[in-house]
Amino acid sequence: MAAATDDAGDSNEMIRVVSSDGEHFEMPEAAANLSLVLRHMIEDDCADAAGIPLAVVAAKPLAKIVDYCTKHAAKSSGLTIEEAEELKRFDAEFIEVDTDMLYDLLVAADFMGVEGLSKLAVQRTADLIKGKTPEQNRETFGIVNDFTPEEEEEICKENEWAFQITKPPSRLC
Amino acid sequence: MEFPEDIWQHIHSLMPMRDAARAACVSRMFLRFWRGYPSVTIDRKILASSSQQGIRFWTEDERGKYILTKAQQVLESRGSSSTVVRSVKLDLSTCQKVIVSATSAGGLVDCWLRSFVKPGIEDITLFLSEWDNNDYYYYYGHDCLPEYTFPCSLLSDDDEKITSLQSLSLSSCGFHPNEGMTTLLGCWKNLSTVCLHRVAVADEELGFFLAGCLALERLTLSCCDTIGSLKIPHALRRLRSLRVRSCRLLRTIESGAPMLATVWYDGWPLLRFSLGGALETTKLEVRATRMGDVIQYAGAKLPSAAPDLETLVLSTVYERLKAPVMPDKFKQLKHLVICLGRSTVFCAGYDFFSLACFLDACPALETFVLRIADGIRWYNNPNRGKPDKEASWKRQEVSELHHGGIIGNLRKVTITGFCSANSLVELTCHILVAAAASLEHMTLDTSPGYDRKHTSYGRCWQMSAEALREAETALAAARKYVEPKVPDGVDLKVLGPCSRCHLGMRDNS
């Protein structure tokens, strides 16, 4: 536990980042290091007072990402089981966002190379798709149905098994 | 707002197969992902996820038909794709044997495997139904061999050989690779994990198979009742973990694998157990339930067979404890953990003090942990129980065996389940003398071990009422006999039962 605090405490340096819409954010160096892109920039001495510009990440998702990284960096190594559970709870609450935000987070985490967040967002999206009808999924994620009616019928028939509710056994015999 | 296709594909690959199939109907892009969905799984969930409870009331016959129909549908919907499937899992372990062994099902399994096992496959899991209980009790042995044999020939068709396989898990089927199948050579060369459960395989077949598994890292065998002798060749240089459980006919385990680090054996006593003469590992953990001579073996063989050993964990349940004869010393051993399970017995005349021989043969030791299980039978009075005159003779032998060595680097000693046996007190005092120059911390814990309590809910391991009574005697013994001998500068902790978990329990009972 002590080690974890020390690790985070060591890097007092704050890293400044700038969102695509010009907002400035600050986070500890340990937090920035969770992003592959930022880490490389820091290693190459590109982190200066002006801040690292992130051309494709808007302020809203960036604020969330800074939150995420700061929280995770503070508890990086030597977690007790309680701390690990607390972090898990944090993740679960953190990712309870609407689909627009989820979408932004996915793209931003992918761009910035924040592996933990990428996984979290990808899993959340997969969970959202699960158990929904194709029509509901198209609505949720704004996907256009580009099948012809014939194609759609065919593909639905092929994957009928996945939609089936277990039938009474008598009908199967 | 364009969602990158590769992210979508990644998301799709993470979904369970049923949901992935449903999503295929969303758009052409998703249909493409589905065609390339990298794994195929048929298990209880796929077969009956919508109303699992309902299926229990079906007759076996109905259920069998349902399962076959459903499996066939899944097969057809996936069969049309031409993508490389990386993982195939077919789990029929919850179905009755009659269903699975029916010809149609046998054909289905074959058809299933042939459809998806193609170059590029990395993971094959095939769990057929467990034995019916009746079969198991009435017929035992070869009469009751599983009927389906895993088709090894899948991996080596005439035109192409599959060498991509990394993990193979089989349950309740036959597995018969043999030297006649020359085309199989090289097929196993990338296998890193092999798990066989209730698999019928002969010794020489297993031997032929293992000889080709040059990348094997983990081998698990359980309930394989046809194996009598397990021999692991030296060429398996990456094998780290060997777990063998409940193989009834197994009498010999001989491993030559040089990097072995974990050996778990749970089964009948073996006639021969050997980890070979050339272990290169620095860390070794041996856990055995019914073998009676793990400590003997480790003491006699490992110092010369594993000269680089730095950490050794020996955990036994049925040890027949006596002073190990140690012709060589563990020159590098720094950490030693010995766990004595509840069925440990002491050979006539021997007692806890026998372990002094082991310690004295570890000149570089830094930490020593001894865990004594609740319920071990030990005797204080030489006239009680077996030891009699012979005892004093044996004690003399023990004294001669241990060379009065100095354990010059020993800094930390922890004994959990500390009891009031004279011989344990004696062992403790022996350590205090032998490690007087270096010892910093000694913990005598009369509970089953605060250092390994369930942190997830903060409770200690349970203690029986008898153990609680014994703990009080042990505390007194530690204070009376050990404390006065503790040199200055050594931090001695004598721990009683936990007031919250253990004493609270006693009040309730």
UniProtKB/TrEMBL annotation, chain A:
Pathway: Protein modification; protein ubiquitination. SUPFAM superfamilies: POZ domain, Skp1 dimerisation domain-like. The keyword GTP-binding does not apply. Keywords: Ubl conjugation pathway. Gene3D superfamilies: Potassium Channel Kv1.1, Chain A (3.30.710.10). It comes from the Eukaryota. InterPro entries: SKP1, SKP1-like, SKP1-like_dim_sf, SKP1/BTB/POZ_sf, Skp1_comp_dimer, Skp1_comp_POZ. Residues 116-162 form the SKP1 component dimerisation domain. One of its GO terms (biological process) is ubiquitin-dependent protein catabolic process. Residues 14-73 form the SKP1 component POZ domain. Belongs to the SKP1 family. Part of a SCF (SKP1-cullin-F-box) protein ligase complex. PANTHER family: SKP1 (PTHR11165). Involved in ubiquitination and subsequent proteasomal degradation of target proteins. Together with CUL1, RBX1 and a F-box protein, it forms a SCF E3 ubiquitin ligase complex. The functional specificity of this complex depends on the type of F-box protein. In the SCF complex, it serves as an adapter that links the F-box protein to CUL1. This is SKP1-like protein. It comes from Oryza meyeriana var. granulata.
UniProtKB/TrEMBL annotation, chain B:
Gene3D superfamilies: Ribonuclease Inhibitor. InterPro entries: At1g61320/At1g61330-like, F-box-like_dom_sf, F-box_dom, LRR_At1g61320_AtMIF1, LRR_dom_sf. Residues 3-35 form the F-box domain. Residues 81-499 form the At1g61320/AtMIF1 LRR domain. PANTHER family: OS02G0105600 PROTEIN, OS10G0384600 PROTEIN. This is F-box domain-containing protein.
